[in-house]
Each structure stands twice: as C-alpha cells, then as structure tokens.
Design a protein that fits this description.
The chain is α+β, with helices and mostly antiparallel strands and about 110 residues long. Helix content is about 25%, strand content about 30%. Strand 4 and strand 5 form a beta hairpin. The longest helix is centred in the last third of the chain and has 18 residues.
Length: about 110
C-alpha cells in the first residue's frame, strides 16, 4: 500500500501552482470515503498515490487529482498545465468513479477552481 502521509519533499508542486488550470467537483454520495479509497487504490498500481480515509492525491502524467471525503460529499480537485489536459484528467477521473459507483447515479459538475 502507499504511504498515506508523504512528506512535503515527496509531493510534487501542483500544475495549477505553476500557472496551470484547475477545476473542482462536489459529488453528493453516502459512499464518499469508499469511492475515494477505491480510486486511489486503483490508480496506485500505475501512478504515485497517497491517501487515507478522508483525503487522497493521485499524480497523473497530465496533472494531479486531490480528493477529500467529508460526510456524504466527495470533493474532486483536478489541476493540469492547460485546459486540454485538464479536460482529459477530468474525463479519466469521472469514468473510473462512475464505474466504481455503478449502483448509484452520481451528480457531478466540474467548475473552475
């Protein structure tokens, strides 16, 4: 399993912090923590990931996705160098989330962050 608490030296600077773009989506679901952990475990097979029950970070080649679970809300924040890569990152995250949440219909709308 991955280290759920990487040191600051291990966490790369976010693309948005270096002039990129970002978006956020708040997803109402009773399974916020479960989906956060499923997404992080899934991508940990190929990507650098850190997570615990309430927060996660997935480092993709095209950007980063930070996740948080608070009560019945899963918050997804994607950051990428440009709008094209941000759209790709949002698509990858949504497609996987929808697969894991096949028993419910999720409401998910990205907005600029």
């Amino acid at each position: 399993m991955t280290d759920p608490n990487p040191s600051a030296a291990e966490t790369p600077a976010s693309p948005a912090a270096s002039g990129g773009v970002s978006s956020v989506a708040e997803v109402p679901t009773a399974h916020a923590s479960r989906y956060l952990q499923q997404l992080c475990k899934h991508f940990a097979h190929k990507r650098p990931v850190s997570f615990d029950e309430t927060a996660g970070h997935i480092n993709f080649t095209i950007g980063d996705c930070r996740l948080s679970a608070a009560g019945e809300t899963l918050v997804l924040r994607c950051e990428a160098p440009d709008r094209e890569q941000l759209a790709q990152l949002e698509d990858v995250v949504v497609r996987h989330l929808v697969r894991f949440a096949f028993r419910e219909e999720l409401r998910l709308d990205w907005r600029p962050a």
